[in-house]
Design brief:
Elements (H helix, E strand, L loop, with lengths): L5 H32 L6 H4 L54 H5 L7 E3 L6 E7 L4 H19 L4 E7 L3 H13 L5 H10 L1 H4 L6 H8 L6 H8 L2 H16 L7 E4 L2 E3 L5 H21 L1
Parallel strand pairs: 2-3
Antiparallel strand pairs: 1-3, 2-4, 4-5
Helix pairs in contact: 5-8, 5-9
């Protein structure tokens, strides 16, 4: 019997090693992609829930975070079990409000809300945002100025901004945002988005967050006090949980009226939604 040369065995080992290295490289790429998108993510429980009839298809990355963005301890959740006989999860699905009414959408939590535009505007638009989200930054830079000029400043739309922080870095920045007076809210909100590259990172960097917040007069003492302000943090937690109950899964997500849009809306898309609604309400007003 002839023995196979030792060289063939070495070749097989080299092939196996090359395959393992390729898999590790793919895993690292996936991890880097996940970090890059984490600022726009939502709730993993929402992924297991059928979308409501009034919601559009999502273009936002879902939130897979199970920890509080404010550092508050939460009850550990059992992960999805793909090997269960029925493929079910060990924890109950989140009960999303199906077809919410406008009253459901506008129900306010314990904290005051930032809004822009006439209180009696015919259409209300609610934007759920995370300060670390690059899509939110792009919306505020490219779409918001036109939206404000054409619809908000003309009295046609009232815009409400609600916090939906993803990750502890966003949570800490959101606390700093809430530390500012309400008349500085929009200014600081835009500064956090415009300067994301200076403060957003996997690790929370209070000094970098404070450098942005100080631009509207927030002091370190005020920020430190706000970080310990449990009623405010609980109020912020309720804002996010209420958003999840309404079907919000990431950022930016929008309600226009009582319809949820899980995508980054462009100005042409917003016009296509708003103009028929405003025409209908105008006709109804004239008929009355």
């Amino acid at each position: 019997m002839r023995r196979k040369p030792a060289r063939s065995g070495r070749l097989r080992l080299m092939a196996i090693r090359a395959m393992l290295l390729r898999r590790l490289a793919l895993g690292a790429t996936g991890m880097a992609l996940a970090v890059g998108l984490s600022g726009c993510a939502g709730d993993s429980a929402a992924l297991l829930t059928a979308p409501s009839a009034g919601a559009t298809a999502s273009a936002a990355t879902p939130d897979r975070s199970d920890t509080s963005p404010y550092g508050v301890t939460t009850t550990p959740k059992s992960p999805f079990n793909p090997f269960a006989p029925d493929g079910s999860t060990a924890r109950p699905l989140r009960e999303v409000i199906a077809n919410p009414t406008l009253a459901d959408v506008l129900k306010q939590g314990p904290l005051p809300e930032f809004s822009l535009g006439r209180q009696d505007a015919p259409v209300v638009m609610v934007k759920y945002m995370s300060l670390t989200c690059p899509h939110c930054r792009r919306f505020m830079a490219e779409t918001f100025p036109v939206l404000r000029r054409e619809y908000i400043d003309t009295g046609k739309v009232r815009l409400i901004i609600r916090e939906f922080p993803i990750g502890k870095t966003s949570g800490n920045a959101t606390i700093a945002l809430r530390c500012a007076p309400m008349d500085k809210y929009l200014t600081l909100y835009r500064k956090f988005l415009e300067q994301q590259s200076a403060w957003v990172s996997q690790e929370v960097r209070p000094e970098a967050i404070m450098k942005v917040a100080s631009q509207v007069g927030v002091t370190r003492a005020q920020y430190d006090a706000c970080v310990k302000n449990q009623p405010m943090i609980e109020g912020l937690r309720q804002v996010k949980e209420r958003g999840r109950d309404l079907g919000v899964i990431g950022t930016p997500n929008f309600f226009i009226g009582n319809r949820l849009y899980k995508s980054v809306l462009t100005m042409p898309e917003i016009r296509a939604i708003l103009d028929p609604m405003l025409a209908e309400r105008g006709s109804a007003g004239k008929a009355g």
